[in-house]
Amino acid sequence: MPKDKPIEGEKRVFMTGNEVVAWAALAADADIMFGYPITPQNEIMHYWTRLAPKFGRDFLQTEDELSAGFTTLGGVLAGRKAFTATAGPGNTLMQEPMSMAEAMRLPMVAIITQRGGPSTGTVIYSQQEVTMTTLGGNGEGMRIVYSTATHQELFDYTIKAFNAAWKYRFPTFVLGDGYQSKMRESLTIYDPAERGIAIVPPEPYFGKPGVPGVDRPPSQLRNTYNMEEELYEVVEHYLEDYAKVAPEVAEYHAHYVDDADLVVVAHGVVARAALMAVKELREDGYKVGYFRPVTLRPLPEKELREVAGRTKKFLVAESANGQLARLLKEGAYGCTTEMLPLFRPGMGITPEEVIAEAKKILG
Amino acid sequence: MTGDSARIVEAYTGEYASGKSEVAINRALGLAREGRPVTLVDLDIVEPCYTLRPLKKTLAAKGITVLAWETGQVGGLGETGNILRAENRWALKRPGDVVLDVGYGVEGAKTLNLLEGAGTDPDLRVLLVINIARPMTGSVEDILVYIKQMGRVDGLINNTHLGDETSVEIIQQGARVLAEAARRSGIPVVATTAVRELAALIGPKDCRGHPVRAIDRYMPGAFW
User: B48 and A14 in contact by Cβ < 8 A?
Assistant: First the structure.
């Protein structure tokens, strides 16, 4: 007999990031994972396949990532909370189903554990899947992307990703990386209900009760249109919806920004190094601030522009060659803040490196 | 004490991220401190992260022989796996004590079968490292199921911890859970491990009488 609740109350535990994701998906009432192996994502699948049978959940390993993405959409259409996880070249292959999810407003949830690129790169770590995860595919980037920094956030935001996806009906991503996947640290896992977090229930897209067109609007699901005008009308409507929900979806963290001469901007695991660096610099009397977008799509634009209006310089620290910086430049267009790079494509960034760079800039 | 007392051959296995490598490293260094010749062997042929590879030189400098690839020598890790070093395959034929670090959970434990003499070595003991703060091995029932999946297990190690947040209480809780798992499985608890500061607070034996081994943490420096 499957057990009801994967987590009773709450518990302090010691885990790897991948394992955290599997437990969070259980806690979020995910029904099924579709996946194809790729490092550094593998243990999400491994732990899900070990845990799922105990709690009456399902798993299907497909022949590749293209198929894993599309079967995830099939699960969603059938009204199941379906998710997948991938990395690097797997994320590249999955852009096709992810675009379809945008086109048909399907609440696909995907965990991305960034690895080095271009191409197969390394299996270890990078932040080089920002552009692809936020704006990939042949679409308009109507996606929600949470970039996590700690194991606690991996747990919290994986649960939140399922809720956001099913509430707003845009494909939703938890953007991690190889470091977060493999690192071990303690966190509290919990039953969302005990924290007052209501789980948004899924519903089928097909086979709803009543006569289509009489008792309810017909379920007309399309990703192909005959005419430019037809497509334009649909996309315009989706873009309006996206713009409407963006302010309530967008999240950020900011510290010490009010009087800062320089603000370090970072996301994901690099934000941990950035915050440590900023705290140390403040202790040494440097007027340095910290800004971290938690959502990379939609970007917390209003808050970014406020900080940009107050400070002279941004130092953008990322393990990519300016993929975060490109999003920031678009978000802060027209602001005169200078944007200085600390770009290390595929390399980790330490607090010491951020401190050294900040001191060099501030003199 | 010299190396002429009975040969010690121990394989450390266990759930992914249970602390096998840290326990194995500290065991090898502990035996070396007693003046015994020790070979420490990396038998993780899956994992790109947290293996003995990055620590090879540091540990060798402390007077033990370390059989492991160096990170720059390996290619195709993770889903593609890695090649077992020829020297590692013959590790059980070496003189002196042998400590085997067998990575990557149940599937990884099968790597032990690739070693020459693993099925017949009279001194070999397979020790299962358990941290009850890992939910997959969090209760007596979970541990009993896990032992069955592992195949051969000759002894249990209580390596319960919460990283930097570890307390004496959680280590003792691990000792109580493992004592019960030992009673029900018939497999003894060989030791409780604890970082040096906490080991000093616990004393030479934990609350269930298992010997306490103090450990120093090397693995945080072994990410890749």
Answer: no
Side chain identity at residue A342, one-letter code: L
Least Cα separation, residue A41 to chain B (angstroms):
10
Q: What are the backbone dihedrals phi and psi of residue B154, each rounded to the nearest 5 degrees, phi first?
A: -105, -20
A19 SS3 class: helix
* Contact assignment for B162 to A14 by CB distance below 8 Å: yes
CB contact under 8 A, B49 and A50: no
Interacting residues of B160 by C-beta distance below 8 A, sequence separation 6+ = B130, B131, B132, B133, B170, B171, B173, B174, B175, B177, B192
3-state secondary structure of A311: coil
B3 CA to chain A: closest CA distance, Å? 36
- Whether residue A169 sits in one domain with residue A73: yes
Structure pTM?
Answer: 0.96
A115-163: pLDDT as tens digits: 999 999 889 999 999 999 999 999 999 999 999 999 999 999 999 999 9
Q: Look up tokens 């956001």; give the residue.
A: A164
Residue closest to A174 by CA, chosen among A149, A147, A138, A208: A147
Between positions 149 and 168 of B, the ones with CB within 8 A of A are 161-165
* Whole-number Å distance between alpha carbons of B72 and A21: 30
ipTM: 0.94
Query: Rounded distance, CA A204 to CA A31, Å?
Result: 13
How many beta carbons lie within 10 A of that of residue B191, not counting itself?
19
Domain interval for residue A317: 252-362
- In-domain check, residue A227: no
| DSSP string over B158-201 | E---BTBT--HHHHHHHHHHHHHHHHHH-PPEEEEEEEHHHHHH
A15 in contact with B, Cβ within 8 Å? yes
Give A49 to chain B, closest Cα distance, Å. Answer: 12
Picking from A195, A216, A236, the residue at the C-terminal end of a domain is A195
Residue A274: CATH number of its domain: 3.40.50.920
> CB contact, 8 Å: B81 with chain A?
no
Q: Is A95 a domain residue?
A: yes
Do the domain assignments include residue A60?
A: yes
**What phi, psi does A133 have (nearest 5°)?**
-75, -35
| Residue B207 backbone dihedrals phi, psi, to 5 degrees | -65, -15
Catalogue all structural domains in chain B, each as residue range(s) with its CATH number: 9-221 (3.40.50.300)
Angle (nearest 5°) at CA B173 between B171 and B174: 65
Determine the Cα–Cα distance for residues B31 and B131; give it in Å rounded to an integer. 23
Chain A: nearest CA to B36, how far in angstroms? 32
Give the nearest partner residue to A14 out of B48, B50, B134, using CB atoms: B134
- Beta partners for B130? B158
Same domain as A182, residue A274 = no
pLDDT per residue as tens digits for the range B38-80: 999 999 988 888 999 999 999 999 999 999 998 888 876 777 7
